[in-house]
Structures are given as C-alpha cells and as structure tokens.
C-alpha cells in the first residue's frame, strides 16, 4: 500500500525559513522556468467576489524533480477584519514518475508566504542597485513584513517606510519590523514622499486602484509589484510602464492577464509583443538579467508561479524528512 507523508504547519515552519536557502530554492525555480523546460499550466482561479475572496490552484512539473506540487491557495482579503489571515491553503506532492500521491503539506499558506517573499529577494538581487538601502513598502499585511525581511537578506537595507491605508496597522507593522529587523522602519502617511525617496519600492496590496504614480518614480529605483495577481488588482499607475527602463515578469503569459502589465496593455502604455517606449535595453526575460546602469528604473511584476510552489514544496518535504518530521500513513 502507498505511504502518504503528512506535514503540519509547525513542522513546515521548522523545516523552512525565509533565508538564503529559501531564496536559492526560488532563484533556481525561476532559472528552470527560464530554460523553457518547465511544464506550467495557467492558474486555475475562482473568484468569490461576495466575500472579497479568491482561490488559486497552481502547479508545475520541473524536469529532474522527482515530485510535483499542486497547491490550493485561498486569499480572502476581508479575513483580517475577523482576526483571520487573508491567505491559507495547502500543497500536495505527487510522484512525477507515476502520479502517485506522496505528501500533504498542511502549511496554511506558510510556504506560499515564504516563496513569494523569496521571489521579491531574487528580483532585488538582480534588479536593484547593489547599494540600495532605503525601502518603501506599500501595504501593512503579511507580505509587507516578509518582503522587507527578504530585502534585508540581499541588499544593505538601512531604513524603510511602510505606507498603509489604515494608519494604525501601518504604525504597528513599522514598529514590529524595526524591532525584528534592527533597521529603522517608520510609518509614512505621504505615499508620494515615501516612494520618491526610496531605492526599492515593493507593493503588497490587493488594491484595485493604482496607488503608485508614474511621476513619483526616480532614476535608479527598483519596483517589485507583487500584490496584483488577479485581473482586477492594480497597484501601479499604468503610466509607470512608460518610464521604467527594464521590465521583468515572473511569467509573461500571467502578467499580461493578471499582473501590472495587464493594465498597461489596456491603457496602451505597453503594447502586445512589447517593448516599453523609451527603452534602452528592455527585457522580458524570466530571470538572470541584472541591472546594467545605476540610473535604470526596473520593475518586476510578480503574479506567483506554480514552479515556485513545486520548488518550495519539494524543498520543504526534503528538509522535513531529514529530521524525520511528520507522520506516515498507509492509504
Ligand atoms: N505574487 C504572488 O506570488 C502573491 C501575491 N499575493 C498577493 O499579495 C497581496 C497581499 O497579500 P497578503 O500580504 O497575504 O495580504 P494581507 O491581507 O495580509 O495584506 C494586504 C494589505 O493590503 C492592504 N489593503 C487591502 N486593500 C487595499 C487597498 N484597496 N488599498 C490599499 N491597501 C489595501 C491591507 O489593509 C493590508 O495591509 C494580495 O493581493 C495577494 O493576493 C499573495 C501571495 C503571493
Ligand atoms: O497562490 C497565490 O499566489 C495566492 N493565493 C491567494 C493569494 C495569492
């Protein structure tokens, strides 16, 4: 009879943390995706508008990996009002050779959180100036915290400003991050000022209306937009596409439907097939492209990919098995 491994959130938290290993895991996943060998179908997404919710199913097969993950990932963005996290869910691992069920990772969204923050770190590693030290984080939820933590692992961050609609939540996030990261993190109510004075801007909200305006961007900045992962979400003024010098999507076929590119295509600030106007050497490659000039404005559009999920799930299972974590049941 086949054996099934079950891992709980606390076991997975012990196995995987946001650190250099997790970043390496996700960087390798993007490199595999860029090789063109990965099989990654479009995201299956169900909107439950009535409750400001969505459920995303993501998967990918990576040649050479013994297993592939299928992830079920709800995002219900009114949950914080009732004391619940916005995102949750689980990942399931299957054998790549036989399709047999191998493991259920009851992570409650933890592995998605880590792989998403690690993607932000990979983006900054390749696209932010090496001396980038001032950050603006837009939003004060789970990813706002993790994205800043991730940036501190790849750039010499000295200070950050957190902007949030809800000032109290923004102030709490800033205080918490100051204490946990040991850098100066303050709340800023003036988003224009916070964006304009940052070396790196990360947008982390499910906003359906642009928050960051094109004329706030400055030479030498890197922007990662990771909150907009559904067609209706839009954190950047589409005009940003007319001023950025380098654009990198996690998956072009996703960002043109779900990410910031989608809105730029609709607004006509980017064209299908594209190339951003005013381009010096624009790229749409998946990864491995690094910033070439300290004056470039770079934009990374993250919509979240199944290859990240297969990578983090297989990594977590390997780490957990190394310490004999979890229970095995015969099914
Ligand atoms: N690209 C990717 O791979 C992933 C993207 N996401 C997306 O990132 C976003 C944030 O996720 P979490 O941090 O887990 O959520 P969260 O609910 O913990 O945090 C969201 C933050 O955005 C704020 N916010 C909500 N609506 C807003 C609006 N209209 N204008 C300004 N601020 C607003 C909230 O008050 C909160 O501070 C979501 O859109 C989620 O779908 C999440 C995980 C992976
Ligand atoms: O899988 C994912 O990236 C997400 N699921 C819900 C919000 C984002």
UniProtKB/TrEMBL annotation:
UniProt record similarity statement: Belongs to the ornithine cyclodeaminase/mu-crystallin family.
Record Gene3D superfamilies: NAD(P)-binding Rossmann-like Domain (3.40.50.720), ornithine cyclodeaminase, domain 1 (3.30.1780.10)
Quaternary assembly: Homodimer. Binds the thyroid hormone triiodothyronine (T3); T3 binding inhibits enzymatic activity.
Organism in which the protein naturally occurs: Geodia barretti (Barrett's horny sponge)
Entry protein name: Ketimine reductase mu-crystallin
EC number: 1.5.1.1, 1.5.1.25
InterPro entries recorded: Ectoine_EutC (IPR014334), NAD(P)-bd_dom_sf (IPR036291), ODC_Mu_crystall (IPR003462), ODC_N (IPR023401)
Enzyme class of the recorded protein, top EC level: oxidoreductase
Reactions catalysed, as given in the entry: L-pipecolate + NADP(+) = Delta(1)-piperideine-2-carboxylate + NADPH + H(+); (S)-cystathionine ketimine + NADPH + 2 H(+) = (3R,5S)-2,3,5,6,7-pentahydro-1,4-thiazepine-3,5-dicarboxylate + NADP(+); L-proline + NAD(+) = 1-pyrroline-2-carboxylate + NADH + H(+); (R)-lanthionine ketimine + NADPH + 2 H(+) = (3R,5R)-1,4-thiomorpholine-3,5-dicarboxylate + NADP(+)
Record-level GO cellular component terms: cytoplasm
Single GO MF annotation: thiomorpholine-carboxylate dehydrogenase activity
